[in-house]
Amino acid sequence: MRARQSSRVDLAQERTTGQERTTGKMRSTGRDLERKFWVALALYGCLALLVWFTMDAGKVSVFGRPVDLRLVPLIVIGALALRTVVARQAEKVRRGEEKNSS
Length: 102
Fold this sequence. Notes:
Layout (H helix, E strand, L loop, with lengths): L1 H16 L12 H25 L4 E4 L2 E4 L2 H31 L1
Antiparallel strand pairs: 1-2
Helix pairs in contact: 2-3
């Protein structure tokens, strides 16, 4: 009975602290995150190219000025790419603090 309770406590601690379980990883490593970052940026680039070549170059009025319609999704894709870059920098800062505190 005592061993059962301690194993439940250990599992709960692993979940709350984000440690790896014996069945698999819960967090990606630094090298894996770098690879995912570059893949994500490449996919954003491919998506931007698809938008550029498949959308019509029609105009839409924004605050009284004509704007290319294809620029709207490109701005959204650019914002997502910027968010990805900022998240990567934040993760680097977090990992740097972890290394310094260890």
